[in-house]
Amino acid sequence: MIKKILLALAATISVAVHADINIGESVPTSGLAGDTGKALALGASIYFSRINAQGGINGEPINLITRDDGYDATRTLANTRDLIDKENAVALIGYYGTTSLQELIKSKMLDTAGIPLVGAYTGADSVRTPGSAYFFQTRAGYTQEVEKIVALLNEHLGVSRIAVLAQKDGFGEAGYAAVKNELAKRKLTLAGEGWYDKTTGDTNAAAQALAKANPEAIIMVAISKPASTFAKQFKALGGTSQLYGLSAIQFDNVTRQAGLGVAHGIGLSQVFPAPTNAQLKLVREFQTDAEPFLKSGDYPSYALLEGYISARLLTEALKRAGKNPTRASVYEALSNMHHYDLGGFVVDFSDKKRLGSNFVELTMISATGVLTR
Fold first, then answer.
1. Of 303, 204, 205, nearest to 251 (Cα)?
2. Both 15 and 52 in a single domain?
């Protein structure tokens, strides 16, 4: 359903042949991470569609060009070169994946082209510090998420035997290091670890190892599908550990793929406000804009909101960049975006900061399949 909507929206946004505000995006719309990648792209498309319906930026529509990278860093780099050199993108938005961002920043492609990237679905320290002056991050880091989870488990619940499930790549390594470092601060060591392959998503060996160790809690440094598979396998093997995951896991995917009986009770850290929190002006507007593109009963996901937020930030920068925005003028506008309140969620790039938000909260999947905070 999301794929069809995304294609239709892309067609709508690209109708104007002479649109000269090209925005580039490389995300996985296929493969293991395809559901989340499509949601990120759809969220951005929804907001750009709203702006285009209002006349665009100074009369020019925004043309979002989305490329599928299949969660493969090599394809991400190739897509980015095309978006910069062939599509003449004025900015990039909403990339996905730690390894992809590591390779992108290492390539210096953003710096060489002088093109800003707004938002990426990763919180690894390796892409944040020092990162790139052209990478404007909208989410808190994995270190901050892990700190929040471990503080809850250890300080408030008295849990000391904590293990980790991690993906074998830059993402998993970043989260694994964050867990080990946070435990070390408390004079604790890992009670077990399990790893799974990024390409296959096979968590069977990890589930067996961690079910055998059966610690008090397991922190899952995983994306949605492998986390779902692991949770099912682990519980089928008799594992009783409390499961917690980072924000890379979309809870609605877990409840759908693992079943509510398995998903109930899984804790997840979040780096954006709840998409259901209508007390926030941002979320109310998001819900209104997203509603026409969701099937009845569909949940407006965190990934959808993340894409939407990145698009709102970039649109504000385009407006501030003046008529006929360039990469340089958009970069300057973003660099001067000090304490910008989107309506209950604040992003701050002042004083050369590129880590726009420190927001983290903990949630849990309830017995009815919704998140509680």
1. 303
2. yes
Q: Which residues contact 321 (CB under 8 A, 6 or more apart)?
A: 329, 330, 332, 333
The string of pLDDT tens digits covering residues 170-217 is 999 999 999 999 999 999 999 999 999 999 999 999 999 999 999 999
Mean predicted lDDT score pLDDT of the chain: 94
* CATH number of the domain residue 169 falls in: 3.40.50.2300
Residue 45 sits in the same domain as residue 120: yes
Q: Could you list the residue range(s) of the whole structural domain that residue 307 is in?
A: 2-140+277-347
- Mapping DSSP onto H, E and C, the string for 166-190 reads EECCHHHHHHHHHHHHHHHHCCCCC
- Per the CB < 8 A criterion, the answer to whether 301 and 249 are in contact is no
Compute the half-sphere exposure of residue 165: CA atoms within 13 Å on the CB side of its CA: 39
209 and 228 both lie in a single domain: yes
**135: enclosing H helix or E strand:** strand 135-136
pLDDT tens-place string over residues 9-45? 544 444 334 448 999 999 999 999 999 999 999 999 9
Q: Which residue has the tokens 């095309």?
A: 82
Are 256 and 291 contained in the same domain?
no
Residue 372 within a domain: no
Instruction: Provide the domain count of the chain.
Output: 2
- DSSP state letters, 197-248: -TTT---HHHHHHHHHH--SEEEEE--HHHHHHHHHHHHHTT--PEEEE-TT
pLDDT classification of 297: cutoffs 50, 70, 90: low
Given the structure tokens 């598979």, which residue do they identify? 229
How open is the CA angle 25-29-31, to the nearest 5 degrees? 135
